[in-house]
Amino acid sequence: xxxxxxxxxxxxxxxxxxxxxxxxxxxxxxxxxxxxxxxxxxxxxxxxxxxxxxxxxxxxxxxxxxxxxxxxxxxxxxxxxxxxxxxxxxxxxxxxxxxxxxxx
Length: 104
What we know:
The protein is an all-alpha fold and 104 residues long. The protein is 84% helix and 0% strand.
């Protein structure tokens, strides 16, 4: 059984992760690049959503493996997260390459 303080830490971490999707740095970056904020957000949205999805899935993996102990749970979550982010980046690069090839 998980202690209530441990559950509170997990919930706080999940809530903090949700607030990172679009932040003040996004606004500053679009202002620095002298482009419309909407265009900057739309160009970065696939990457932000990828990280948000991988974070959510890694959190779910940690929830299912917590009974194995903290070290095993952390190791399994890290490995799963790295595999998911690697696969997602490979897929995004492949889609971008196909899009570039069709433009040329």
